[in-house]
Amino acid sequence: MSEHVLEARDLARFYETSSGAFAKPATVRALDGASFDLEAGRTLAIVGESGCGKSTLARVLTMIEPPSRGELTIDGRTVSGKADPKLRQAIQIVFQNPFGSLNPRQKIGAILEEPLKLNTDVKARERKRRGLAMLERVGLRAEHYERYPHMFSGGQRQRIAIARALMLQPRVLVLDEPVSALDVSIQAQVLNILNDLQEEFGLAYVFISHDLSVVRHIADEILIMYLGRVVEHGSAKEVFAHPTHPYTAALLSATPVADPTREKNRIPLTGELPSPLDPPPGCPFNPRCWKAQADCTRAFPPDTGEAGHFAACYHPLAENETTA
Amino acid sequence: MALEESISEEAAEELARNETPARRSGLSEFWYYFSENRGAVAGLVVFALLVLVAILAPLLAPHDPNIQFDNAQLLPPAWTSGGEWRFFLGTDAVGRDIFSRLIYGSRFSLFIGIVVVAIALLGGVTVGLIAGYVRGWLDTLIMRIMDVILAFPSLLLALVLVAVLGPGLVNAMIAIAIVLQPHFVRLTRAAVIGEIDREYVISARVAGASPFYLMTRTLLPNCLGPVIVQAALSFSNAILDAAALGFLGMGAQPPTPEWGTMLAESREFILKAWWAVTFPGLAILVTVLAINLMGDGLRDALDPKLKRS
Amino acid sequence: MALLEIENLSVSFQTSGGMFRAVHDISLTCDQGEILSIVGESGSGKSVAMLALMGLLPWTASVEAKRLAFQGNDLRAMGPRARRKVIGREMAMIFQEPMSSLNPCFTVGFQLGESLRKHLGLGRKERREKAIELLKQVGIPAPEKRLNVFPHQLSGGMSQRVMIAMALACDPKLLIADEPTTALDVTIQAQILELLVDLQKKKDMALILITHDMGVVAETAERVQVQYAGEKVEEQHVKDLFADPHHPYTAALLAALPERATDKRLPAIPGVVPGQYDRPEGCLFSPRCRYADDLCRRSVKRQGPEFGGALCNYPLVNGRPTGKEEANAMDDVTS
Questions:
Q1: Which Pfam families does the entry link to (chain A) (predicted)?
Q2: Residue spans per domain, chain B
Q3: Exposure string (b/e) for B116-133, b if CB count within 10 Å is 16 or more?
Q4: Which terminal residue of chain A, N or C, has fewer Cβ atoms less than 10 Å from its own Cβ?
Q5: Measured between CB atoms, which of C13, C265, C271 is closest to B309?
Q6: Are the C-beta atoms of residues A154 and A130 closer than 8 Å to each other?
Q7: C137 contacts C168 by C-beta, under 8 angstroms
Q8: For C72-131, what is each residue's pLDDT tens digit?
Q9: Chain A neighbors of C272, CB-CB under 8 A
Q10: Could you write out the DSSP letters of every residue in B139-170?
Q11: Which of A103, A190, A198, A199 to mutate to test the interface with B (most CBs of B within 10 A)?
């Protein structure tokens, strides 16, 4: 049993929006009550559609934004408002867009060395040595050190972004849709590198994605989110085999599978995502849910389920219901 | 170990193929887009000549610009009747060689342009960076002040400032810099606001960069494109405004061979001696036109929105 | 006679580094009432080819083709006026970004009405009725209310439905959908794809679906054309393509899908798609192909229909390259 490098308890993040001088400011609950633990060397996937709060969660985890509620512990240190360089170094992030995540006016070498320069007093020569080593580690070569980002392809840039995030030797790496902008063949290269790096450094990944086929490949544990809420949480194997929340089941059935002989068995979801400004009462999924009953509109449902596989639902699917 | 090997193999293969020149380097790409614009190249040539003339003024000028030749007042240009070849473009009312004065005048024009743009750029970019980064009430305050400055006709405001500071070339330059500075503030602020939410800026924050570091090292280099274009256009504006102030007697004081001042001195002879006003006027026109054309070329080359491919 | 016939279409762009050929000798035919999918990664020229067909490329592009015919009429021989009549009316296109495809300054009803007025010349009242009917067809609830709504008030899925409604306004014979669901969420993507297939069946249209997503191809298309670096590498019926891809690129692409992986390590394709400055000689895929030999680096030949017209010297059959026995034998000896 290894220790938890990341512990989140009831994390929430609210935004105030004002739609005019006289309108009452509204509160958007972008993230509302996410709790989970993550061990070193394991991957937690956060899955959901746009507006589900997964990117907000990434920003809270990496301390770009403070949580409005809840407690976050990274590598044994509790996050407070105070700046803590040790804490800062323990968690890093890789973004989706490989074209926006590297400073276009910096050389690759400077990009890689920057985190060391800002946080440590490592000498220039040692910084360069580590930068070069990390560059090689992600499959690029020493002569790329003096080049600018625009000379690289999307996949190569994503490798550079990963290398930069690892320069401070973090315990946790938050990957915000790291392969969504890449072509399939390049996506496979990057996923392989992520896999190797995890084994080598014992990294814990928080892997944010909307692509269930990628998640199924990489995740150990999975967290399904809908409209700022965690609706299902469990081991990846369990969740994929027996989704218990109706939303998870619908999501799984809507994901296209690259097999034309497979029998389509789609759960039709009507309607669209409700506005986060005005979420439906009770379970946020109830207006689109085919199993919804009167009690679903009363309050957010408590977790049901057992032994590491929970769903926030009053009427969870039975095992035989979902294997269809 | 096996993993390690397969990765480096794969990578080596990939990179071997990327060895071929991937893209034009920054400078040659810049030149490609710049040289597409013929006017810009012409402007650049004229501007380069102007700089050469300014540097080599003592060698090029046939006479000292301030020497007054007796019996040579208001001589017409050499090619007209009554003209003398030693005064190529004629002389002014007190017998000074206009050609020499124009050559020396280019030094003032360039000096004014450089100093004014430097002051406006430095002040404007700094204020703009702060406004765009900090936002909130400070941003509102700064931008309202800039709006007030912009609300005045620029020459009028410069006149008022010179009236307060006292006439003279240095004060005129300060006044013009203050008038031109809001453009830089607005541009920089807009660029900062556009860049600040980009992932590379956030990732610098996650890496632990301080606000000062973010502003100067991360944001500033990425906001300079439009500012450089504005600097080129402000350069010509500065020359024009300085000439106007000189013409109104609020800028460079006689006998400085500044083009605007030369115009002012010859104003009363406009009917009798056309050359005394025409040539300084032409010098201003050509210089300003050249710099503006160059600025357009810079915009073509530096503004990615206009780029093809 | 096929509805759409394209023969040897090439498109080049003028760039700062000289001419860049984005599409090279692409041929395709599409019959009435069929769903053809063009699949490829970025840089495969899949969108450019269709934009060229629609005449929507910027002026820096030059388009060449041996034949470019719609319903037997050569599009290149038509004057601009006749061509405009075909495009937008008989052929319509929808794009990836539904949010930016609609003009934010005008209401949905106005924009729908405009395209109806331009193409059909209907009166005000008829336009309104037709617009409501169209919105109903694409599954928009309460269409009367939606007419007065501005695009920013619609979600991505709703905007895409409006775009589809606009494309369908003149009952086109051919609908080209360029990555219509890439910007949408999975559950919305499923709805839109279903709608497209449904409308295609109902109206007996031809549908050309451009996508990079093998899952979408598998679930929607009937015939598939695979493109790589501006060239067509093979074409097959969807079931045959997934069961027995003939071009090594298609095979490698399918193998690299995480959902088809058997191992934690994915069989990635090494390298990147060649760009403007690093085009190899011979087969464009040869630097990344595991079966490539010296011949492939010099030249490449187009196979017949028995191999799906694969652009490959040694097309795969059941995962093994054919016509390369000697080379294989040598491989076995050395290893």
A1: ABC_tran, oligo_HPY
A2: 43-59+100-306
A3: bbebbbebbbbbbbbbbb
A4: N
A5: C13
A6: no
A7: yes
A8: 888 888 888 888 888 878 899 998 888 788 888 999 988 888 888 888 888 888 888 999
A9: 153, 155-156, 186
A10: HHHHHHHHHHHHHS-HHHHHHHHHHHH-SSHH
A11: A103
* 8 Å CB contact of B22 and C277: yes
Cα distances (Å, whole numbers) of residue C182 to A138, A227, A231, B90: 28, 21, 25, 73
- Scanning C15-54 for CB atoms below 8 A from A yields 41-42
pLDDT digits (tens, 9 = 90+) for B182-233: 999 999 999 999 999 899 999 998 888 899 999 998 999 888 888 888 898 8
**Rounded (10°) angle between helices B220-247 and B98-134:** 140
Q: What totals of helices (H) and strands (E) does chain C contain, helices first? A: 13, 13
Instruction: Indicate the domain borders of chain A.
Output: 4-256
Phi, psi of B35 (to 5 degrees): -75, -15
Residues of chain A with pLDDT under 70: 1-2, 18-23, 320-324
The answer to whether B14 contacts chain A (CB < 8 Å) is yes
Total residue count of chain B as it appears in this document: 309
CB contact under 8 Å between A92 and B221, yes or no, is no
* Domains of chain C and CATH, by start: 33-55+80-227 (3.40.50.300), 245-334 (no CATH)
The CATH architecture one would assign to domain A4-256 is: 3-Layer(aba) Sandwich (3.40)
Place of tokens 């795969």: C316
* Gap between the Cα atoms of A149 and C290, Å rounded: 29
What amino acid is encoded at C194 in this protein?
Answer: E
* Interface contact B23-A150, CB threshold 8 A: yes
